[in-house]
Structure formats: structure tokens, C-alpha cells
């Protein structure tokens, strides 16, 4: 374990280890936002826009037939479009099939 002052080895699961973990947890503050508009500019920069911290994934339409590409475009519209009802239906119909559901 590194505490900033001295390096010290402690056994995982020991009382000292549990106390250290608890102390570190108390220093954390977890916030959840429904959308980017709820963040102040500093939080938005640090969590989303700062190239040193962010992770970007490239999204590509399916290769193959035009029909498959159209299905992809339709799904993007459902998930990211202005209409709420289709997105809600998708979530309701698929939520239980997700491996890492965060509720």
C-alpha cells in the first residue's frame, strides 16, 4: 500500500486493510447525471471533453447489405432520437437481457 508518506505492506482482509479501504471510500463522492446539461462546465470538461481522460469508441454501421445498414440507422434513431416512446419501449423490452444492468 502506498500512502504518500511511507510504503507499507499489509495483508488483504486484515483490520488495517479494511480500515484503509473505508477511509478511502469516505473521501469519494459519487454523482449521477441524467444528461450532460446537468453538469457544470468543469465537470463536463473533466468527465467528457478532456482528451486526457475520455475514451472514444468508433461506431460503425454493419457491413453487408443496405438493409442491414438501414436497420442500424433505425436503431440509432430509436436510441438517440428526439422521440421518447420508442426508446422507452426498447429499454422496457431489453432491460432484463443486459449483463451489467445499472439501476
Describe the structure.
The protein is an all-alpha fold. It has a domain at 31-95. The protein has 4 helices and no strands. It has helices spanning 15-27, 41-49, 66-80, 84-94. The longest helix has 15 residues, at 66-80.
Question: How would the blueprint of this fold be written?
Answer:
Blueprint: H1 15-27, H2 41-49, H3 66-80, H4 84-94
Structural class: mainly alpha
Order of helices and strands: HHHH
What is the mean pLDDT?
Answer: 85
Write down the overall geometry: elongated
Properties at a glance:
single chain; 103 residues; mainly alpha; 4 helices
Short description:
The chain is mainly α and 103 residues long. Helix content is 47%, strand content 0%. The protein has helices at 15-27, 41-49, 66-80, 84-94.
Amino acid at each position: 500500500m502506498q500512502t504518500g508518506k511511507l510504503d507499507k505492506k499489509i495483508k488483504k482482509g486484515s483490520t488495517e486493510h479494511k480500515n484503509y479501504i473505508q477511509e478511502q471510500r469516505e473521501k469519494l463522492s459519487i454523482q449521477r447525471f441524467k444528461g450532460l446539461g446537468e453538469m457544470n462546465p468543469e465537470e463536463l470538461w473533466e468527465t467528457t471533453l478532456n482528451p486526457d481522460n475520455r475514451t472514444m469508441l468508433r461506431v460503425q454501421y454493419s457491413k453487408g447489405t443496405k438493409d442491414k445498414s438501414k436497420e442500424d440507422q433505425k436503431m440509432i434513431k430509436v436510441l438517440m432520437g428526439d422521440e421518447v416512446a420508442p426508446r422507452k419501449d426498447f429499454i422496457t423490452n431489453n432491460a432484463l437481457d443486459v449483463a451489467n444492468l445499472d439501476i
